[in-house]
Structures are given as C-alpha cells and as structure tokens.
Amino acid sequence: MYRRILLGTDGSPESRRATSAVASIAGPLEAEVTVASAAYERSARVTEWDYEPIEKAIPTEQAAKWARDEVAWLAEHGIVADHTVLEGPPAEALAKLASSGSFDLLVVGHRGRGSGHIPIAGSVATALPDLAHCPVMIVP
C-alpha cells in the first residue's frame, strides 16, 4: 500500500514522533522513505497594536541538519532513508514534492517551530490536507 513515504521535519519533538511513526510503517512494508525539510524565510508585521508571528529564516544548512538527523535516527532503527532540502514555505514545498515524487503517504508532526523556534500550532499540518495529492498523516 505505502511504497514511498515522504516525511517532513523541522527538528521539533513533534517531528521526531512523526519519524517514529514512519519507522513503524516503513519497516514492515519495506517502503522507501525520503526525509524533507524546508529552508525558508517569512516575515510579519509587528507594531505596538498589531502583532503577527515572525518566523525567522531557516538556513539551508539548518534544514539539512534536521533532515540528516532524522535519517540517522531511522538508520538506527533499521530504516534506510534519503533526504532533501526544499526551498520555500514548508507546506507548499512538501505538497509539491509529494505530488511530483509519486509518494503514497506524507507524514508530519502536528506542531512545529514558529517565531524564534518556539513550538506553535502547526500551520503546515493544517495546510497539507488541502495541498497534498496523497494521503497525509499528522502525528500528534
């Protein structure tokens, strides 16, 4: 059923739980796993009356480290995986890769890193079901 799994990560504890879920699925199915993380920059308006969260730039090196860390964790648990770094907003970039890469399942944690790398309710997890052209698993 699931032969190719895409795992989105941002280095958060929720992402690690998603990685663990992927290991439990991919192992028995001998599925191919690709770990992806996005390098991006978002800004927001901040005035004394109006505040919108600012997500700091995520450099390519940091995104690559997060992906490599999950690949290493999967390897320790008997799962072979490759990794990639995506450019742009995470939800859109993951959905695009999932569609273009013929993935059968896209897995992410339900929360992620926000302003200053503080865990926030996951806008990526919220957006993916509407963007992805494959099943999406959101791990609590």
> In percent terms, what proportion of residues is strand?
25-35%
Shape: globular
CATH superfamily: HUPs
CATH level 1 name: Alpha Beta
Helix/strand structural class = alpha/beta
Q: Can you name the CATH architecture?
A: 3-Layer(aba) Sandwich
Question: The CATH topology, please?
Answer: Rossmann fold
- For the terminal residues, how far apart are their CA atoms? 22 Å
Residue runs with pLDDT of under 50 for 5 or more positions: 114-121
Strand order of the largest sheet: 3-2-1-4-7
Helix content: 25-40%
Main pleated-sheet profile: 5 strands, parallel
**How would you state the average pLDDT, rounded?**
86
Number of strands: 7
List SSEs in N-to-C order. EHEHEHEEEHE
- Radius of gyration over C-alpha positions, nearest whole angstrom: 15 Å
Count of runs of 4 or more consecutive helical residues: 4
What's the number of domains?
A: 1
Overview of the structural elements:
The longest helix is centred in the N-terminal third of the chain and has 17 residues, at 13-29. Strands 3-2-1-4-7 form a 5-stranded parallel β-sheet, sandwiched between helices. A two-stranded antiparallel sheet has the order 5-6. The radius of gyration is 15 Å and the shape is globular. It has a single domain (4-39, 51-57, 78-139), classed as Rossmann fold. α3 packs parallel to α4. It has helices at residues 13-29, 60-76, 90-100, 123-131, and strands spanning 4-8, 32-39, 81-87, 105-109, 111-113, 119-121, 136-139. By secondary structure, the protein is of the alpha/beta class.
Annotation keywords:
25% strand, globular, 140 residues, two-stranded antiparallel ribbon, Rossmann fold, 39% helix, alpha/beta, 4 helices, 5-stranded parallel sheet
